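re: the backbone from monday

yeah here it is again, tokenized this time
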């Protein structure tokens, strides 16, 4: 009981520190770094759910992050949708694309799955890089708007974007914690530990793997859309191989399966 209490107090203190951080550190660079850290962490939560808890390492995660970012950028700049509508549509679009890819990718296992998703991620990069008319190609996509105001709350400053990213980060943390501790999360862990054994006790491994894959894509899409609205300029490099291995490094350093 004391351990649980200590953990909750520690989490509460971390949240308080995060809330007052912009007032403690008056440095725009560090503030922007923290905002990007929150955004990237949301994406890595999804990657960890699939790789760390289900045992399937997707190297297309940066690609889906880029799809979410570009979808928001294209829907707001070319189709002139309102920001929050474009935000939702971008997540849905990325999830549908990812689900279709997942249906094929999850027919493979282990390193074959990793290689297949690496190829998919690189194809996403090539599409973004070469489709000039839609994505802007190597010139990039510019003019992405900041999030529109919610009532009296506006998001046209770095501090406001910091708090918006923090809110999404905390929600993502809560959602992942709930998933991992639920029956669904234990099912993912059973598949990671032994997929064949999980099948013998009646677990529909294909459905559960696809569920984990889709949830991971939702996190990548949310992070990508937030990234686009914060940076407000996109280039194809966010889907390229260095970004893939940056994500992988974040996952390993953060603690895969924790």
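seq for it, each position gets an aa:
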């Amino acid at each position: 009981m004391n351990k649980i209490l200590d953990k909750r107090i520690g989490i509460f203190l971390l949240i308080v520190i995060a809330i007052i951080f912009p007032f403690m550190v008056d440095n725009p660079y560090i503030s922007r770094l923290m905002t990007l850290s929150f955004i990237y962490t949301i994406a890595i939560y999804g990657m960890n759910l699939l790789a760390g808890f289900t045992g399937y390492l997707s190297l297309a995660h940066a690609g889906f992050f880029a799809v979410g970012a570009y979808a928001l950028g294209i829907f707001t700049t070319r189709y002139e949708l309102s920001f929050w509508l474009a935000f939702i549509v971008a997540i849905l679009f990325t999830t549908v694309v990812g689900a279709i890819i997942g249906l094929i990718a999850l027919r493979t296992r282990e390193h074959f799955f990793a290689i297949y998703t690496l190829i998919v991620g690189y194809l996403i990069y090539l599409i973004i890089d070469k489709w000039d008319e839609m994505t802007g190609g190597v010139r990039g996509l510019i003019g992405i708007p900041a999030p529109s105001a919610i009532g009296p709350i506006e998001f046209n400053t770095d501090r406001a974007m910091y708090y918006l990213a923090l809110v999404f980060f905390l929600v993502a943390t809560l959602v992942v914690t709930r998933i991992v501790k639920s029956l669904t999360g234990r099912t993912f862990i059973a598949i990671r530990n032994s997929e064949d054994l999980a099948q013998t006790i009646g677990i529909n491994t294909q459905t559960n793997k696809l569920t984990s894959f889709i949830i991971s894509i939702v996190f990548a899409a949310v992070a990508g859309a937030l990234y686009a609205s914060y940076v407000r300029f996109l280039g194809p490099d966010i889907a390229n191989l260095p970004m893939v291995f940056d994500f992988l490094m974040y996952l390993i350093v953060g603690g895969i399966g924790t």
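The mean pLDDT is 91. The chain is about 75% helix and 0% strand.
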